[in-house]
Amino acid sequence: MNGIMLQAFEWELPSGAGHWRKLRKMARKLSRDGVTAIWLPPAYKGAGGKNDVGYGVYDLYDLGEFDQKGSVETKYGSKEEYIKMVAALNRAGIQTLGDVVFNHRMGGDEKETVTVHRVDPADRRMVSEETEEGELYTRFTFPGRKGRYSDFVWDHSCFTGVDYNERDREHSLFLIDGKSWAQDVDAENGNFDYLMGNDVDVSDPRVAGELTKWGEWYLKTSGLRGFRLDAVKHISAAFLKNWLAALREKTGREIYAVGEYWHSDAEVLVDYLERTGNAMNLFDVPLHFHFHRISHGNGMYDMRTLFDGTLVSTRAMQAVTFVDNHDTQPGQSLESWVDGWFKAAAYALILLRKDGYPCVFWGDLYGIPSRGIGKVTELETLMRLRRECAYGDQCDYFDHENIVGFTRQGIKSRPGSGLAVLLSDGAGGEKRMCVGKHFAGRVFRCCVGGQKDVRVDREGYAVFAVSGGGVSVYAPKASLVTSALRRLSGRRL
Asked: How far apart are CA 267 and CA 280, in angstroms?
């Protein structure tokens, strides 16, 4: 089966809405819809308690069990609900991936007086030789947990830098005296080790040991099958390589991992994969930016270059392709929202082609009510088409600056498989494409795009059409998808 990953949240989900319970009830439906892996939001207590999306990490061991930061439950529910939900998803054959945030900690319990150096935020290599005293919230004692699962106390020696000095109530960037930034991180701003909050020093053997201990505990406690790794460009590549290796050795399992390295240059991503010993997959950020530029390009984008400089064109087996996510949605830190008119076409490009591991975004599948953004209406059909039809040899027709397409010729072991896709960022049009001689005389039905049936000639070709700024997807008339759509619509296709 063709795999589909689902990012099972968006940034503005309401607090207290029982998200873990909801996902548990949805497990079988998601499996039927073709979801084979699910990226779950951070499950541990954030500094904002039940209102924290999960990226303001406070206590990795508190999965909604202890009264800390003003609540017992996290935004998504309780520990018990989380574990039951993971078990239900696993039983449904869906690989469960936990979101791991290692870069920073927030919401310290106590202040410490610490000697610090000022750092130029635009070039973190520029560190003042002068020192000053700071009052920093760098001591984490987790009083609500009282040492259960781990008695490790985090203090300033566990961090490299901070962005706030309580003494002067000043927001700036400070390096803790005696510490240095990791060198095997992204080179933006001279050195991009620091991102936010209290920057975790993973080079400290005590910290690395505690995080490995936690990883083993987390897998055993939760039942997760893998990880989504947050902000890896800010974390030592050597640490993550060693951390994953240690967990794989301790558990005797593969432990799938995909990292978020936010960079538009695929060569940087490939270099990172090499430095980590290819220990993980990466999200194809360059491809996302192609989609964003097309959707805002007023037809001026050259569609023939759509996959140029992307991770999926360079390292197809390690590329997790996506259209949007919680960070790119409107109002968020990396906002680069793909405009709605191009969403279906973008999803056709990641779901129906042979290369890449596609990740569907919750906000596209179900909408973002808080922003008045509706769901991508064609998305469930495209997911079904991937599951049933997107198999076999691929023929590309990227030969026009505005209208491009591709076909999949199907395989014998998947009766009814095969398809044709045509998309445009300008005026509509037609293209003659080959689906294979074995389809000679067969009718292909338009499942997405509202076009007329086409009949394949004896050479295996047909002329497929697309409307302006649209996408058309055709499948063999007798396929499971066209039959399912007929049942859903109550009419003959």
From this structure: 16
